[in-house]
Amino acid sequence: MLLLVTGATGKVGRNLIGALLSEPRWREVHVRALCHNRALAETERIEVVKGSVDDRGCVDRAMQGVTHVVHLATCKEVPETVMDVTVKGLFWLMEAFRQSKTARQFMLIGGDAAVGHFFYDHGEPITEHTPHRAYPGCYALSKVLEEVMLAQFAIQYGLNTCCLRAPWIMEKDDFRYSLSFGDDVFGGPDWKTLVAPEVAKRCHAAGTVPLLRDARGRPLKRNFVHVEDLVAAILAALDNPAARNRLYNISMDEPVDYGAVAAYLKQTRGLDAVDIPSGYYSNWMDNALAKFELGWRPRYDMKRLIDSAWSYQRSPTDPRKVWYPG
Question: What residues does each domain of the chain span?
Answer without folding.
Answer: 2-171+223-252+283-304, 174-220+256-276
